[in-house]
Amino acid sequence: MSEDILTVEHLKVGFRTERGVVHAVDDVSWTLRRGEVLSVVGESGSGKSVSAMTLMGLTRSNNAEISGTATLADGTELVGLPEDQMRRIRGGRISMIFQDPMSALTPVYRIGDQIVEQIRAHEKVSKQAANARAIDLLKRVGIPRAEERARAYPHQFSGGMRQRVMIAMALSCSPEILIADEPTTALDVTIQAQILGEIEDLRTETGVGVLLITHDLGVVAEVADRVVVMYAGRVVEEADLRELFKDPMHPYTWGLLGSIPRIDQARPARLPTISGSPPSLLNPPAGCHFITRCPHRIDACHTEPELKSSAIGSLHRDRCLLPADEKRSLRVVNGSIGLPAAAVEAVPAGVDGPEAPTTQGSLDSALGLDSPEGRLS
Amino acid sequence: MDLVYFAIKRLAGAIVVLFAVSVLTFLIFFAIPNGNPAQRLAGRTATDADIKNVEHIYGFDKPIYVQYWRTMKQIFTGQIQSYTQHVSVFSQIKRGLPATLSLSIGAAVIWMVVGITLGVIGALRVGKPSDVAITTVSFIGISAPSFVVGNVLLDLLVYKSHILPNVGYIPITQNAEQWFSHLILPWFTLAILYIGIYAQVLRTSVLDAMTTDAVRTARAKGLSPTKVLLKHVLRVSLIPIVSLWGLDFAAVIGGATLIVEKVFSLQGIGQYAADSVGALDVPPVLVVTLLGAFFVILMNAIVDVLYAVLDPRIRAGSS
Predict the structure, then answer these.
(1) Beta carbons of B214 and A90 less than 8 Å apart
(2) Which of A103, A106, A107 sits opposite B218 (nearest CB)?
(3) pLDDT tens, position by position, B165-216
(4) Which residue in B213, B222, B235 is closest to A98 by CB distance?
(5) Of A88, A108, A121, which has the smallest distance from its Cβ to B236's Cβ?
(6) Which of A92, A95, A105 sits opposite B214 (nearest CB)?
(7) Residue A105 near chain B (CB below 8 Å)
(8) Residue B47 has pLDDT above 90, yes or no
(9) Is residue A88 a contact partner of residue A58, using CB atoms and an 8 Å limit?
(10) Burial A247-258 (b: 16+ CB within 10 A, else e)
């Protein structure tokens, strides 16, 4: 078993608003190992980005409540780490790339200088040395004529090239952990594949642990080693990639997998969706957060289920209290994994209603189906 | 090549604008009732014959385009004289120029420095008492007319408490210290409006910039908050301020100093133009207006160049 480089335990992030506390991340635990790609999937608002930003100390503010632990390999505790030490970790030991490479770089500086800026923020090196390293990094992420291109401005690059620049910048201080927040969502399909290939190469070459945040199960299938599925601020299932696709144990995961269109089967009139919409994080339902949309719910679901493995010693954990055997039969709908359609009737009493009216769009976007580059395997 | 094209385009535009401004100014004086300058030139006791005589000497009996042509020729040969004082307009302008330039450049420096500082503080302390205070002061500054501000300041700091010297302009070459102390009040009176506007524009612009992805990236790189603010927030949010400043500064030199000059008796170009309008003295008004227009055009061109220097995306657009 390889070495754990980041252990997150019981991480909670809440934001105080005028209407109450929004529980954006509600008791999240997972472990990232050296050289692995851990993928966090979930729809918009499931708390995947917020948890990642919290690890970088970027959600800290006067109205944020953060608790739990996030520990690096050497024992450094990220939650509550003083800001000046956090700054050394940000961009130094943990770096991050974002969804929209078109706007992620400051438009008025040359890209080489922006990489140099990060190197010199963390290491005492001369401008020339930093610049030489920036050019090496650009070459490494596949930017042709790197010496020349380092002197160009961000607007002179295409989206894919800018994302490569972001990756080069993220790698500039040889981080232990790379957080990639939807790194391919804004790119077209061929570029997506190149960027994913790049990330893949990097982790084998450098042993960097990658936390890949995405809503695109196609991307997950392509590069992830392990997967964490998040729903309404909680981890609902955690498994190896293969296990998750072959033997999913949480009804929400079934719904996600069931809504992937299959190329080897006749296309249904309408793509299957999970009925209903995610609960309000301001006032989530008591017990299981998926209760409002789950066709298999039972009375016991009103008490909060814990994240536990269904078989002793297994690293496959889920947050559903149904027995494993029952789940294996319930999850089969029309011969493949999914949720039965139109499962949701009235919202159970005592539970806050959904925030938005039920829309197909929210789930489509959660799965990357609404964009032309949304790609599912 | 680009630069040559840019310069030619600008110059052509400038000529068209200057022509239009001169024609309009000229026509306005013909449209004013009882605007016949001959009547004033001939004096209060003049007979009709005297007036006719004056009209003939000055060419006021000629068609309007001939008059326009003659006046413009005089302007461009530098020979133009005022109707009422019979002195060279250019020598008068030269006399008023130091006061006007001292006033407007000084005020522009003050409003940039103070406006930017207040705007940044407001953005960093958004919602807090200091932000509310800055916004309140800004709006007072924007809505208070300069003749009120100027006279209140004069009354408090000069007439009542004698902290600052009386009105008037002392050339910097004569006594730098006196020059400065005489200009403090006019500077602030002129600047207060712009301080209010700039503080509010910059505050919004900084707040917008702080939520951009690029600033998030800058923070994620591990830069210090000061570096993020100066290099990634301010550098970008100052771009719109620069173009605003170019236009406002041109407007100030082109005549917005008038009221302040009048309140503080600075004898600058603005005051000269105002007095000439009162006397229906077309040549000085025409020359001052053209100078103002020329300055606006010049500042616009400078702002365009500055813009290209500050924002690489614009450079790419022009090439």
Answers:
(1) no
(2) A106
(3) 888 888 888 888 889 988 999 999 999 999 999 999 999 999 999 989 999 9
(4) B213
(5) A108
(6) A105
(7) yes
(8) no
(9) no
(10) bbbbbbbbbbbb
Q: Count of H helices and E strands in chain B? A: 15, 0
Nearest CA distance, A328 vs chain B (angstrom): 43
Contact between residue A23 and residue A281 where contact means Cβ atoms under 8 Å apart:
yes
| pLDDT at residue A368 is higher than 60 | no
In this structure, how many other beta carbons lie within 10 angstroms of the beta carbon of residue A311? 8
Looking at residue A362, what is its pLDDT?
Answer: 40
Residue A353 predicted with pLDDT over 50: no
**Amino acid (1-letter code) at residue B48:** D
| Interfacial A residues in 62-101 facing B (CB < 8 Å) | 87-92, 95-96, 98, 100
| Model pLDDT for residues A228-238, shown as the tens digit of each residue | 999 999 999 99
- Asked if B223's CB is within 8 angstroms of A117's CB, the reply is yes
Taking a C-beta distance cutoff of 8 angstroms, is the pair B183, B103 a contact?
yes
Looking at chain A, how many residues does it have? 377
Task: Annotate B132-191 with DSSP letters as a single string.
Answer: HHHHHHHHHHHHS-HHHHHHHHIIIIIIIT--S--SS---TTT-HHHHHHHHHHHHHHHH
State which H helix or E strand residue A95 sits in: strand A94-97
User: How do the residues of chain B divide into helix, strand and coil, expressed in percent and rounded to 5?
Assistant: 80, 0, 20
Residues 6+ away with beta carbon under 8 Å from A273: A255, A259, A360, A363, A364
Which two tokens mark A183? 């790194």
Give me the interface pTM, i.e. the ipTM: 0.81
Q: Is A282 within 8 Å of chain B by CB?
A: no
Local confidence band at B2 (pLDDT 50, 70, 90 cut-offs):
low
Which chain A residues have a beta carbon less than 8 Å from that of B229?
none
- Average pLDDT of span A307-330: 85
**Confidence at residue A269, expressed as pLDDT on a 0 to 100 scale:** 72
Q: Do A108 and B311 touch (CB under 8 A)?
A: yes
Model confidence band, residue A358 (pLDDT cutoffs 50, 70, 90): very low
End-to-end CA distance of chain B: 10
